[in-house]
What we know:
It holds the Pfam family Amidase. This is Fatty acid amide hydrolase 2b. Belongs to the amidase family. InterPro entries: Amidase_CS, Amidase_dom, AS_sf, FAAH2. One of its GO terms (cellular component) is endomembrane system. The structure is a single chain. The protein contains 19 helices and 13 strands. It has helices at about 5-30, 50-60, 65-85, 90-110, 115-120, 155-165, 205-215, 230-235, 265, 280-290, 325-340, 355-365, 380, 390-400, 405-420, 425-440, 470-480, 510-520, 530-535; strands spanning about 85-90, 125-130, 170-175, 185, 190, 220-225, 240-245, 270-275, 305-310, 345-350, 445-450, 480-490, 495-505. Strand 9 (about 305-310), helix 11 (about 325-340) and strand 10 form a beta-alpha-beta unit. The longest helix is centred in the N-terminal third of the chain and has 24 residues, at about 5-30. The chain has an eleven-stranded mixed sheet, with helices on both faces. Strands 4-5 form a two-stranded antiparallel sheet. The protein starts with a helix and ends in an 8-residue tail after the last helix. It has one domain (about 45-365, about 425-520): Amidase signature (AS) domain (Amidase signature (AS) enzymes), CATH 3.90.1300. It has about 550 residues and is of the alpha/beta class. Helix content is about 40%, strand content about 10%. The model is unreliable at about 535-540 (pLDDT under 50). It is globular and about 75 Å long. Helix 12 packs across helix 16 (about 425-440) and helix 12 packs across helix 17 (about 470-480). The protein binds (9E)-octadec-9-enamide. (9E)-octadec-9-enamide binds near residues 180 and 467.
Amino acid sequence: MAPTAVEKLLALLFWAAVGLLFAVFRVLSRPNAAAPVRKLPPVANPLLLLSATQLAKKIRRREVSSVEVVQAYIDRIQDVNPLINAVIKDRFDAALQEAAQVDKLIEEETDGEEVLEDRLPLLGVPLSVKSSYAFQGMPFTSGLRSRSGVVASVDAPPLTLLKKAGAIPLVTTNTSELCMWLESHNHLHGITNNPYDLERIPGGSSGGEGSLLGAAGSVIGVGSDIGGSIRIPAFFNGIFGHKTTSAKGVVSSENQYPPSSGRHKEYLSLGPMCRYAEDLKPMLKIMAGPNAHMLSLNASVDLKKLRFFTIPHDSGSVWTNAVSEELMEVQRKVVERLEADLGVRVQEVCFPELSHSFQIWDTYMRLPDDEGNPPTSFSKLMGEPGRPAWPAWELLKRTVGKSDHTVAAIGLGLMEWTEASAPSQSTVQMKERLQKKVDELLGTDGVFLYPSHPRVAPRHHHPLFRPFDFAYTGILNTLGLSVTQCPLGLGEEGLPLGVQVVAGRLQDHLSLEVALFLEKAFGGWREPGSPATNADGAEQAS
Ligand SMILES: CCCCCCCC/C=C\CCCCCCCC(N)=O
């Protein structure tokens, strides 16, 4: 699968042009060295350091009231949001009223704690919601200026299920424009910052969720992922995120904006994002509702009996950056811990087809659905009803600061013009070969480790100059696998490290179990802004 001479030449020209543009960007956007470095305030309230599972238990036992927990999160959001800009809109007053009703219900409950746990497992626990989910009464904009003022009139099904389980939504959070970029920036709600370094990106498209969770402004949240939109923000913000097996609607993707079309329904996965690994499984169980049985979430998993593999990189794509040494090193440490603690052998494997991850993802994203309906074009989604946007015109307008769209969205619109009308047969064959190899490797008891991204959280706008690095996550959507993004401590610059834990289709219980192990072994989420975390830049990964 070595690149052809033509591909090498194209890549050379592309990277030379990008290098030039980047040099110009650096000159124009030189940071003000004299500006004080702003940091998040440390977490003062110990309630913010408990998992949703523990909070729900304490609320049920009346050791703490739901009002106290909700108020603690409101206070934290008010402290951190001016720095991270993760929240689009809050509903604090309504949430406090709902929390008071929860406390009253518990006060009057006579059926006992277990019945309550069974019926309402998240009773009284605060929740944050990505704004691509319809959330009744809240903005439903997907970062599009033309949708300013659009308010959802219903709840998306997974949100309905979480509310039914007793969770109390506090806020809706920012995304990239049309949820299709790895930086959460749009010209309606602004730019969201990474809580570990405000000059860096929180990832996207569920970047508002990632940032707020990383900042301890939320304990559980929900995201969506068609190319990495749960896992990239989970990685950059040091939290857990689960991309559910992509099998048409295990977790319903109804009432999302943009709505999925073409093959997107098959690759879009909705799933939980959270700070504590023990919340992943209960959340997913709730979000999947009647389909939860498809994921074997109740099956017990003996990690010692699993087969483990590690894939250190994408076999040398000419379009992605090389995986940094600190990320390679932390993945090696995971291998060592698995081998030492579980007595398993972790085998290194390599799939040359991964070097074409971007081409495979891109090709399959453009395919029609089973009825032959192609996906809605990006330019159409960018425009207004009946009036698609003209990306070239938008680019001209952007140069004079007059476009409603971000450079990333305009770039994606322009890229559509370069696409051939028929998919490349060699790419389709390559994907089929890769799918077969991966399915055989994983079976129903295999798990592999794969880098989440080649680098830790980049500085704002830098992904424009490395647009294909998301292929490390995107390829796993096309392959339809279950993937849990796990944090692994902080690296040299005080930024979160992590890895993707990948299991076969519908084997979500396996990657979720490995996440619990890795949280114990590596310490899970670390508080940004705490003196312990920030001493000399970082607490190193164990
Ligand atoms: C200047 C803009 C660059 C244009 C070229 C872009 C080429 C890359 C193509 C697609 C990037 C998609 C990024 C997807 C990130 C996650 C999406 C998701 N919702 O899961």
